[in-house]
Each structure stands twice: as structure tokens, then as C-alpha cells.
Amino acid sequence: MNVATQIRPVAATDRSPLDFLWFIPSGGDARYLASPTGERAPTPGYLREIAVAADRLGYYGVLMPTGAACADAWITAASVAPFTERLKLLVALRPGLTAPAEAVRQAAALDRLSDGRALLNVVTGGSPVTLAQDGIFLGHTERYEQTAEFLDIWRKLARGDTVTQEGKYLSISGGKLLFPFVQQPHAPIWFGGSSEIAREIAAEHVDVYLAWGEPPQQLKEIIDDVRERAAKRGRTIRFGLRIHFIVRDTDDQAWAAAHDLIQHVSDEQIAQFQAMLTKGTDSVGQSRMQALHKGSRDNLEIAPNLWAGIGLVRTGAGTALVGSPDSIADRLQEYADIGIDTVIGSGYPHLEEAYRVAELLFPKLNLPHHRRETLPPVLPFLPPIAGQKAAGRMT
């Protein structure tokens, strides 16, 4: 049963504007979760197709995921950049995998290649198992300490400083970036993390703090805390929401689509995946995601129009906004009211859902980046061919 709610309609022109990004499924796409039915390989052509569609539909940007199960984020971003015009490219900085000096050169090169469209997502990582596969064996606190050192050096280099310093994890002598960013002082830095040390890093170093889709009042506690920590440093930062979307013409159609998405997921698959996740992560944010559904398919609507079904068999962002365009627009306004001004959405499959979200939801939002292609309302009548009657509309 859906959670009852009093929806307060808000006119689109009165809504807080959002930067709305989409997701590039470089680890593969699917029509159903936990099922080979309808799987799509992350071929270069398919990923490019999604990026081009997002650019044309008016999305602000796209997120390139990172990890062993995904194609490299930097190569993927560089491959779609020449085929897009306005689309921002949010790619991963991985402390512990790349030295700050090399990472800043890569980032500046992508920013120049894309004419100032690079965005940078700092990913410390929350699974010791997958981190070990990349050769990273630091504990949770140590990884974030390394991230802080990485960002300190990286930001100084990005500003054009000549950097010499020695740290616990990272050191540099006479480092300098010779080819600067198009964006000044550098491409914006995004970052997510719910732990105490992660919030401190966000307050000190980042431009956009990125959270997963928890209920608004629960998420407000984190946003208020990070905002206060930043203010003590004389800084202001923005806040983003990473979440899935299942939007249809009506609420009933959207909930039917949500249930359809997990129709092939068995209770055994859920139990195995949740057990693996519990043993294989030290991420505070991941633990918060698991607590929303508690490993059960019962009562998955954890707040009005907020569904935790995706997190049953998926790591990371595990919630979706489900409903009609009006319902989801009102829910997004609730997130905007607590400070969210940026959204990274996704949906299965990502190509079709990019169109659905743009066509159904964007008109309900005050999105300055939305662009529509103007076409005649109907195809014009064809001129008559000699000796024949005039043709009507094409069928």
C-alpha cells in the first residue's frame, strides 16, 4: 500500500530550479533487475546514444560511474565529449589509484577537450573487497585521510601553485600544472560520504556534496551538518541528490512499473546479496541505504513516492522516486526545500527512461537548461505527383 500524503501542488514557475543530470551505464544496462532478460552491453555506440540523447533533451550533465565493474570513466567521457555540445561530464577522481599531479593533468585535459564541461566526482570507495581488487588496502579512516591529502595537493596544483609538501600518504616536490583548466580556478569538485570524516572533507574541500536518496527529513540532518561545518570554515557548498526515477503518466502506472522492474528478483537473491553487502562494506552511506529496506521486499515505500526496491540487489544509490510527473515534482520540491539544487537521475533502461523523465517530468520543473526541438505539429501534405491525387499524411 502506498504511503498516504497531502500533496501541495506547486506551479512549475514557482519551483526551485535544479541542475538535472543523467547516468551513463558503463557497467551495462537492463530492463529488469537481477535478470539476464533484456540486458544491454555497454558498447561505445550505446553509451554514446544515451549521452547524445541527454544532451539533446536538455540534461545538465551525465555521471560516469567508476570501479572494476565499469568501463573507465575518463575514457568514456572523452569518447562522448565530441558528440555532445552542452552536456557536463561528471567523472571520477580516485585517491589512492592516481597521484594528484597526474589526476589534475587528466582533469584539465578533459576540461579543455570539452571546452569547459568537466565536473569531478571524488570517490574514496566503501568496499574493502573491491578496493583490494584495485590494490588499495587502507582502512576506512586511513582512506579518507588520504583523500584529504589528495584534495589538498590537487586543488593547489589546479589553482596554478607550485607545490612542495610531505604528507602521511602523499608527497610532492615542485609540482605544477602547465596547461590550466578552462573553468576557473578549476572544474567543480563533487563528493559524497556520510561518515564523520567524510563530512569534514566535504566542508573543507568540495563544491557539491552528493547524497543518496533518503527520506527528506532524514537527509536534512546530514545537509544541515555539512553546511554548518562548511560555514565554520567560511565556505558555502551546494548539495546534490543521487536517485533513480520511475515516472509514468499516473501514480498507478508508475508503481506497476516499479514492481515490474523487480519481478524476476527472488527472495534467495535478496538474502545472498544483502549478506554479501553486509560483510563486504564499511561504508556508512551504504549501511544507511540497507537500513531503509532491511533486506525485505515488504513496505518498500519508505516515504511518499520514495521506493527502496532497487537497493535490494544493487549497491550505492538504492532508492527511486516513483509516481506521476506531478507527484515526483512535489517530492523534488521537498528536497529542494532542504537545500538540494542538483539531481543525478537514472532509470532502467537508461535510454528510454532518459526520454520519459525529460518528456514527462521536465515540463513540471523550472529547468533553465531544458531545450526542446521545434517541429511542425504534423507533417506537411506532400505535393501531388503528376496524374495522381494529392497525397495525405504519411502513415
UniProtKB/TrEMBL annotation:
Family: Belongs to the SsuD family.
Superkingdom per UniProt: Bacteria
GO process terms (BP): alkanesulfonate catabolic process
Class of the enzyme per the UniProt entry, highest EC level: oxidoreductase
Entry EC number(s): 1.14.14.5
UniProt keyword terms in alphabetical order: Flavoprotein, FMN, Monooxygenase, Oxidoreductase
The organism of origin for this protein: Sphingomonas alpina
Keyword Flavoprotein: yes
GO MF: alkanesulfonate monooxygenase activity
Domain Luciferase-like: from-to ranges: 19-341
Protein name (Swiss-Prot/TrEMBL): alkanesulfonate monooxygenase
Pfam families named among the record's database cross-references: Bac_luciferase
Parts of the chain that traverse the membrane: none
